[in-house]
Amino acid sequence: xxxxxxxxxxxxxxxxxxxxxxxxxxxxxxxxxxxxRDTPDRVYxxxxxxxxxxxxxxxxxxxxxxxxxxxRRVEEGRRVLVETHATSPAGARRIALGVAAxxxxxxxxxxxxxxxxxxxGGEWTLLSFET
Length: 131
Hints:
By secondary structure, this protein is an alpha/beta fold. It has helices spanning 19-26, 40-48, 67-75, 89-97, 103-111, and strands at residues 9-14, 31-34, 55-58, 79-84, 113-120, 123-130. It is built from five helices and six strands.
């Protein structure tokens, strides 16, 4: 899975149920989890201190509010792991974009490396990738 998620990748982890953090730790990636209680100011400051190759683990019901900031982190070479309950790659993409996303946000998401993986039978399985 490490080869499928190099720096500068947005990874949607389907049905991960907390598994994104375990995956990042198992692969030796420094990480910062982003959850419902986090505030942008605190997250921004803590993420700025992370070393190269770090992962951001996103566990938010609605990640769309964070999308512009997350896309910038991908462009800087971070790994962004988004846990999702979406049943398809297209659904995960729609959830990330939200209902208010601009055409520019959609184009930006289309321009970066995106992978989809799921925890199936206790093993991470690559479902698809977009570049």
